[in-house]
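Researcher: Please translate sequence to structure tokens.
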Amino acid sequence: MSTPLRPITLRRLMLISCLLLSSCGWLMPAPQLRGNKVDPESMKELVLGTSTKADVTAVIGSPTARDTFDDNTWLYISEVTQPRIGRVLGELNQNVVVLNFDDKGVLKSIGKLDKDAALPSPMIARTTASPGTEASFLQQLLGNIGRFNPTGAGASSGVGGGAPGSGLSGM
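Model: Translation complete:
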């Protein structure tokens, strides 16, 4: 004798839908590391006042960037991103390690910045005008002279425009 099937209750339906929805997370691509992430354990090997630029390069690698106006400031920039809807990269984490050296190339200070220290850079919606793209009122008025065709038929292009059949038609 077969047992009758129990009707699916609302609670079970919600549980099943939540499980199915949460299992879609494995379809997302893995987060990607961009830049030069500095290992905190490696940073402990650097000693202020004694480590040189060569020591820093040997321990944590070459910098991501150097300060534009001061060659004695090295920046190690890293961020963790993950693609989101529409292939737009979402920034999950950002870190910047700033190393300052004195004039002799000896490590003077170590600084750390994170995403909270970043300044927002707003987008400006203006456009740059390019000369010659906008005609003045007089240019618009006079520029249409000769272009009007009252019959709507194909008129001669003005280049060698002779009568049809005369052999002087335009190209």
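Researcher: Any highlights?
Model: DSSP finds four helices and five strands in the chain.
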